[in-house]
Every structure is written in structure tokens, then in C-alpha cells.
Specification:
Strand order of the largest sheet: 2-4-1-5-3-6-7
Structural class: alpha+beta
Number of strands: 7
Number of helices: 6
Distance between the termini: 21 Å
Strand content: 15-25%
Largest sheet: 7 strands, mixed
Shape: globular
Radius of gyration: 17 Å
Amino acid sequence: TAIYPTPAVGMVGLIEDMDKHMTQWFKDEGDIIVLLGETKEEFGGSEYLKQIHGKVCGTPPSLDLDKELKLIMTLLQGSQEGIIKSAHDISEGGLALAISESCFIPSGPKGVEIRIPQLMRDDALLFSESQARAIISLDEQNIAKIKELTQRCGVPMEIIGNVNGTRLFIEDLIDIPISKAYSKWALGFENILKSYA
């Protein structure tokens, strides 16, 4: 069958200091999780709209290159200064998927406790694909530093939770064993193929 038109951009870069290499995975129990950027109710062309409502339509999320640059500069500087332990973009699937993927660590999944003020619809909070956003994790002692950095760079930030336990917990919305979420993520394609065997 036909596939959607999918523009792709390939990029390469040079990591000058491997000690400052960063991954998307949460690192240590008790680390603080921070949302960078602004979430809006933007569902056009989203995975949520396709998977839950069976629609491929709507205006894509707005793109502001100035906000993207500010976010990138925050992430680069936070990494260079050793403030940020992990970082993951929020794109396809929205915040809920980005948090989940950050829990899926090669050595074994880590749980999280997330508490976000619900200033919008639940589905928008979890699955909006607003751009210029990322989630990061850091040691609690670096909270003041990240606040100063985000203010200087002009990037909205919100502390949303911490790395903790064995569950994917987003207050009042999601509460499942992280192992169950990991199994669906890691083995989903394999299980679909087995169903045709």
C-alpha cells in the first residue's frame, strides 16, 4: 500500500568530549524530571489522532525556529556544564511517549512518578505534538542551575516529577508497571509478526 509522504532530514555531528555524551535514558533513582518548552493543544497529523480516532488530518503543530534554537542552546549548554544527565525530544506520540522511552534503559527499565498541573485536556497534556519541547533529567542539586540557564535562554521549564520505583505513573492518568510498557514497546513488532505465523 502507499505510504505517507515523509520528508526526512539526516544530520551528523561531532562530539568533542565523550565524557559529555548524553543519551535519552533516565540515569539515577531520585533524579528530577523537567519539561522544557510549551505544550499546546496541537493534534494535527499526530499519532494520537491516527491511533485513537482513525484520522490522518489537521494542521501540523506550529514551528517557531527561534524557540527551537533557544531549546537547542539550553540543551547544549546544560550538557557542557554537566547540569543535564539525560535529554529526549518530544515529538511523535507527545509527552507520554517521550517519558516512556526515557524509562526504557538498556540495563532494565526505570519507573517514574510524574505530577503535572492539568491546565488543559488530558489527551493534550499526554499526546500533543507541540514542537520545541524536550524532557531532561538532572540531580536535585542542579535545579537552581537549570532554572538560571532556562531563564537566560528564554525557555519555559517545569519540574514534572522524578525517577522512582518500578511503575510508569502519571498522576490521575497512567499507572502501570514499567515492565509492561517496555514489553509492548520492545516486542510489539515481533508479536505482530508471530500472530501471522
